[in-house]
Amino acid sequence: MSAARLARFALSALFSLAAFGASAAVQDEAPEWSDEPPALARLLESGFKAESLRQPGVAAAHYCAAARDGSVEGQYRLGRLYLMGQGVARDNQIAATLLSIAAQRGHEKARSLVVPLPGAERLPDCLVTGASPAVMMAAVAADEVVPQEVVDRFVKALPADKRRHAQLIQKLAPRFKVDPRLALAIVRTESNFDAAARSPKNALGLMQLIPDTAERFGVRDALDPEQNVRGGLAYLRVLLSQFKGDVALAAAAYNAGEGNVMRYKGVPPFAETQEYVRRILAFYRAPRHAETLRG
Fold first, then answer.
1. Among 70, 101, 181, 265, which has the minimal tally of Cβ within 10 Å of its Cβ?
2. 191 or 125: which leads in pLDDT
3. Are 189 and 279 in contact (CB under 8 A)?
4. Distances from the Cα of 22 to the Cαs of 28, 111, 145, 160, in angstroms?
5. Which of 285, 36, 284 is nearest to 173 (CA)?
């Protein structure tokens, strides 16, 4: 066997092993609750659901739409389908190109699968032509709140202490007529569920209450998780009512104060606040609050 043929055989074997590993290790893993733009997050979840229903062609179309708009997770998942030949014709060159791009952007699972091949990089037609399959449109157009099952997976994967705090928030939020998913998005952004968190501005606890806000809502110990959450939820309820359920304005007011939102007649032009609002909208996904009346 010539050296060139031996090299090709070795690369083919490596790809076969990688494909087996991808199928065994990551096929059943759903996308995480991330701050990807909402439309991209919906595409990724729709792709995963299609895979679960054994519709890999539909999954590939969703992942390609996400990859085309810059989703590194979409690039990884589409590359994996090309690697395994599921829903698309198996193409090691396209798989290597997509996985290499995702790996270069920091995707750990892509790094574990990528095997460089000789020859030019090659992208799939769906990325080159820019055509948007019709199957995408419903997933992109809807301004729906993040699905509950996505948040449930996120909570279940948290460390035990943070999971207890997340479950406390889910329990208390409906009593203040706050969607638990929005409350979790706020706490994830504020403190990442750290009850002992302190900011340079002396904001404390899970919902980062400043002393004035704690006093306003009767919180005696801002480092007590339940007192902190109750005070933060009470404040969030006031803001949602004041801004008529507008998530961006309520989030901006939670970060920068309602006075600043009223002064600027919208999200204030502060870099921190604008990034804060972006993250909340990315996690929650809907511009309007889905009020819950349970409890």
1. 265
2. 191
3. yes
4. 10, 12, 30, 29
5. 284
